[in-house]
Amino acid sequence: MSTHYVCTLVFRVSLLSCLLRPTTALAADVAKSPHGPDDELGVLNTLTTAQSVAVLQRVSSGKVYDLSVEYFVGMPGLADLGMGDPPYHIWMTHTPSGIKVEKLSPAGGPPDLALYDDAVTMSTHSGTHFDSLNHIGYGDRIFNGFEATRYLGNKGWTKAGADKIPPLITRGILLDVPATKGVTMLPDAYEVTTADIQQTLSKQGVRLQPGDAVLIRTGRMTVWPDAKKFVPNEPGITRDSAAWLIDHGAVLLGADTMGVEKFPMAKESVHAYAFAERGVCLLELAWLEDLAKDKVYEFAFIAAPLKLRGATGAPTRPLALPLRPATPAAPKAADQ
Amino acid sequence: MSTHYVCTLVFRVSLLSCLLRPTTALAADVAKSPHGPDDELGVLNTLTTAQSVAVLQRVSSGKVYDLSVEYFVGMPGLADLGMGDPPYHIWMTHTPSGIKVEKLSPAGGPPDLALYDDAVTMSTHSGTHFDSLNHIGYGDRIFNGFEATRYLGNKGWTKAGADKIPPLITRGILLDVPATKGVTMLPDAYEVTTADIQQTLSKQGVRLQPGDAVLIRTGRMTVWPDAKKFVPNEPGITRDSAAWLIDHGAVLLGADTMGVEKFPMAKESVHAYAFAERGVCLLELAWLEDLAKDKVYEFAFIAAPLKLRGATGAPTRPLALPLRPATPAAPKAADQ
Amino acid sequence: MSTHYVCTLVFRVSLLSCLLRPTTALAADVAKSPHGPDDELGVLNTLTTAQSVAVLQRVSSGKVYDLSVEYFVGMPGLADLGMGDPPYHIWMTHTPSGIKVEKLSPAGGPPDLALYDDAVTMSTHSGTHFDSLNHIGYGDRIFNGFEATRYLGNKGWTKAGADKIPPLITRGILLDVPATKGVTMLPDAYEVTTADIQQTLSKQGVRLQPGDAVLIRTGRMTVWPDAKKFVPNEPGITRDSAAWLIDHGAVLLGADTMGVEKFPMAKESVHAYAFAERGVCLLELAWLEDLAKDKVYEFAFIAAPLKLRGATGAPTRPLALPLRPATPAAPKAADQ
Amino acid sequence: MSTHYVCTLVFRVSLLSCLLRPTTALAADVAKSPHGPDDELGVLNTLTTAQSVAVLQRVSSGKVYDLSVEYFVGMPGLADLGMGDPPYHIWMTHTPSGIKVEKLSPAGGPPDLALYDDAVTMSTHSGTHFDSLNHIGYGDRIFNGFEATRYLGNKGWTKAGADKIPPLITRGILLDVPATKGVTMLPDAYEVTTADIQQTLSKQGVRLQPGDAVLIRTGRMTVWPDAKKFVPNEPGITRDSAAWLIDHGAVLLGADTMGVEKFPMAKESVHAYAFAERGVCLLELAWLEDLAKDKVYEFAFIAAPLKLRGATGAPTRPLALPLRPATPAAPKAADQ
After folding, report:
1. Which residues are within 8 A (CB) of C205 and not within 5 positions of it... i.e. 6 or more apart?
2. Per the CB 3.0–4.6 Å rule, which of A78, B139, C57, C117 could disulfide with C94?
3. D231-271: per-residue pLDDT in tens?
4. What is the pLDDT of residue D9?
5. Cβ-Cβ contacts under 8 Å for D327 (sequence gap 6 or more)
6. Does residue D2 carry a pLDDT above 70?
7. What is the pLDDT of residue C27?
8. Does the beta-carbon distance from D153 to B98 stay under 8 Å?
């Protein structure tokens, strides 16, 4: 049922990979999009406006769940991985006292107008954010075969950046895996298997549909923002469970962790698989605690990343609104 | 009908203001919130979940209008005002070739995994963004009397920051003023008056309601992103027209300009008035061209700024979905 | 013999300090400069060109010791103190491949010209650097009574910034305290006393002179750049030993640590004392290992911080050149 | 007489260059260093400590000329070229009022200790700075054949960065070309020819020697810091005049402009030639006005760039001290 990408196993001919692996090795490769050689959206091409209307009309309480964390100096993030990414930083560019000393003239206003301005530096993968399809690829290529040599500038890619991700208004599904397992938080490096997911769906009484945004809760946010506890060895899905979710309709895979997948990454990386082989974006560092507490497993999911041109990721503040049960006329659930 | 703040004219006692103005001068002052001394939300306290449900259930086509501009190096912004704000900047923190040279080890994955990461610096008032209530005040105080001496840190305010702005799901109204005036774009420094707004509402057949997000189109985006044409002397609303809009139900004032109000600012600044006297946020640099082209004047408006803790502004990617006509049972329109 | 600043004990009248300390408390205060109310240089006013010539003419070997550490991502610094300072960061703004993708046109040159550019973010107190006199003061005032309310902008001070520090060419003295003590490195939080300094001078056969730049080695650089070992609880001088050094001619106090003084700071902070009471800058994170290894205790010291306008500190790359023994006609050593 | 690099004309085989130029084209290539395949210093290998001593002993007045401009928000720089480099920016990371609001605890000190800290962002080519040998090359290679594919990380090069440039203490020569020409400032895009240089040397009564740092004044600093006048179409030397200077002993070429060479660059770029073919660094944005005013044409030149690891450039604050005439025993001047 799922929208499948043409994904082939190919024999790598580059000298480098010949040196790095047995010459008989077969590797996964980036997918050609079924939506054409210029496609930068991937599976999000398949979302329809009918789906958006249908899900919004099922909104019941009007209660809005905010799925984003705050951004603040000291928040856990890529900087904690020791690879040299800058941490989140914010500073004041204007305060009334500074403006007075600098003899600046804000453009008009009353004499006692008091202006405050600030600025930030951050990784595009800070806080709750989308990963774009150009975040990770294989070798020199990303999703749909776009090559770094042709499309990677010093200010981001010219292909498949965060600016190309359309707004998502679709059904969202929370998979509260620790609730299924009877724990507060999944253990470090725990692999969320397909069986775990099926068990959770069953327990929650939910079936996946094409177009679902699937958010996997690991409970990791219960130790947020303690970077030492939060960052290393995250629990998460595997390539197998990611494949099962996408095959059953997921158009977005999200989690309450920095990486969605289990870390350290397995050889079969979920990131690379989702982006480069399936055309599926990830949503990371989502705040799922409120949904879980209220046992809201099905909701209207509304999200759109900042349109940072060419960026490999972008912050977002996704919203979730609980739904009333679907009527019999609702779209038929996917075969599971 | 509107939710009014207790806003008083007071005699300023500070020595500074005594020096700056005749001792008999009366000045506008920051408002005390009717929602209590700890209130940081302002008028957004008044939005109800019933309003959110009602508006979502009127969504008709499912077509989603994206009201955000892209973020890119060279985009117009505060940096063009010459007050020393940093321009938008993005750079690559990781590329596969760099990672190889630096002998970094991303946490696992296949040998040919290719990782791309980037980071940004920007003013919090970059691109499409909310202005928080702490952006501008009078003297040492902002909305609800919060004082800089008590609440302004080097990393933003501890009060009324962007992180405190709740998600907005409410009715949105586009006021296409240049269409009313029969021009492509309002002239430089044009004052959008109450009469202009009333004329536009009338022409569009729309009446304001409590809870509306009102977006004023000036046509300025027709010269975007030419900073020399876009930035100086923006057209926009005045304190009078802002007051009329808020009095008639607006809980958010937005525009397709950097400042919403006419620039240079009049002595009676809309920014200061909206934030400090009325508890109303602004939405700036909104992309309204698609709504205008399709004559979509009434829509579900969905927006939530990034939760940058304490920040005076925050980027957002607002969405608009056209509505079908309201049924007779719909909330009674405000008296205009 | 020393150049003394007019430094008075005053009764603080602010309500805050009344609450924080017994009302009978007397506190040290910022000094008025003997060089006048506009003076921003402090004790460096007293250096003469004759001293510079005299010391350069005693340069013997021409060997140049480089007293600066490198700047690199991950280097220890203020960011390690957990107060939210940004760490050192460097990135490429242009590479040939990026320029090609972005279709940029560097201004001319041959078709295969390959341009590489980079940019940095850092605290002004990164790596080997001067502390300016405006780095630390008491209450609202810094050295010479300059008040933050009048002179502190959002882009640094308009008084006593790094740009005001003149180039120093003077005699430098290394005090190798761990060599005196027979240890590799002084223990954590060790207080370098006046006795330690006198003992070291005696052991090294050196006497202080007016105009000396005095560099105190603690051995801390033997654990550089291990931030966990380097940063917490640095050994260093005390107010008493700082006073003795300044009284005996030191016009600059430097060390191979982040803070020169013992940390955590004593109530009588060396920083505040040196800047605000004596008009003496500090030199921090100096690389003294090569001088110590070669037992070079007396040298021509040449240093000038980057002229970062208004900044509280600025990087520098100081040099040291060994001297031959002074002739009998040399300036008479200070009385010790 | 000069230290020559083995510089060959080669036939480029890359497909790209075949497409870009006639297949019969011959191009300049990067040089192999005579100092070996690992050499990253270039011609600075040839400076001797004897030269440093000799020049310092000729220092006469002790007067120190500061050859650096200030760094400030709004200063002209690469950002003005429109290629997306970040402008210089400085901000406060700590102020006493902010620290109090944030409840931070600087490590100890008295209760009224007032701490001010700041941070900066800048291109490494901001203000007075060295260009490193890795700043510009040909094709994929820089000086001494170092290849970007092997040595270019995301945090700078691992070869020939600013950290590898040794301190320079040598004779400096000012060439006041506008004085020779009888103008205040050379015209836009003026080419400083070998004849201009010879005429200036003759008028000034100076002969070049091996080891000289040669600083070419164009008078451009007379319009500093007006970016519109300063930046476009700088006057400067040509490949021919650069070659003549290096052939006659120059180990550093500096100027009072952003690019030392005439802009727009000629096909035969001085940058590429100096770095990649001759192993000679550049010094840019030097402040030469004071030397010129005082007619100081010969001086001890002391400079060392910040050791920014791997960087393509680095700020510096060079110093110049006038010399007394050389004695007959002085090193023999180069044959010119």
Report:
1. C297
2. C117
3. 999 999 999 999 999 999 999 999 999 999 999 999 999 99
4. 32
5. none
6. no
7. 55
8. yes
pTM (2 d.p.): 0.92
B7 versus D30: the higher-pLDDT residue is D30
Answer yes or no: do C91 and D48 touch at CB < 8 A: no
pLDDT value for B27 = 55
Is pLDDT of D4 > 70? no
Could you please report the per-residue DSSP string of D151-215?
HEEBTEESSS-GGGPPPEEEEEEEEEHHHHHT-SSPPTT-EE-HHHHHHHHHHHT----TTEEEE
Three-state DSSP at B32 gives: strand
When pLDDT is cut at 50, 70 and 90, the band that residue A77 belongs to is very high
Eight-state DSSP code of residue A308: B
Measured CA to CA, the distance from residue D64 to residue D76 in angstroms comes to: 25
A89–C93 CB contact, under 8 Å: no
A89 closest CB neighbour out of C86, C152, C158: C86
Q: Do A84 and D155 touch (CB under 8 A)?
A: yes
The CA distance from C27 to A114, in Å, is: 34
CB under 8 Å, gap of 24 or more: what pairs does A222-230 form?
Answer: A222/A184, A222/A185, A222/A289, A223/A185, A224/A69, A224/A76, A225/A69, A225/A72, A225/A74, A225/A75, A225/A76, A226/A76, A227/A76, A227/A80, A230/A76, A230/A258
Average confidence (pLDDT) over C234-246: 98
From A100's Cα to the closest Cα of chain C, the distance in A is: 8
Q: Which of D81, D101, D149 to mutate against chain B (most B CBs within 10 Å)?
A: D101
Q: Which chains have at least 3 CB atom pairs separated by less than 8 Å from chain D?
A: A, B, C
pLDDT tens, residue by residue, B102-127: 999 877 789 999 999 999 999 999 99
Section D301-326 average pLDDT: 96
* Residues with Cβ within 8 Å of residue B259, at least 6 apart in sequence: B234, B236, B265, B271, B284
User: In the structure, what pLDDT confidence band is assigned to residue C1 with cuts at 50, 70 and 90?
Assistant: very low
Q: For B159-168, C101-110, D285-294, which range has the lowest pLDDT when averaged over its residues?
A: C101-110
Pairwise CB contact (< 8 Å): B117 & A123: yes
Which residue on chain C is closest to D110 by alpha carbon? C267
Query: Looking at CA atoms only, how far is residue A36 from chain B in angstroms?
Result: 23
**What are the tokens at D147?**
């290849």
Contact D218, D191 (CB under 8 A): no
Which residues neighbour C23 within 8 Å (Cβ) at sequence distance 6 or greater?
none
| Beta strands B27-28; B9-10: pairing state | antiparallel
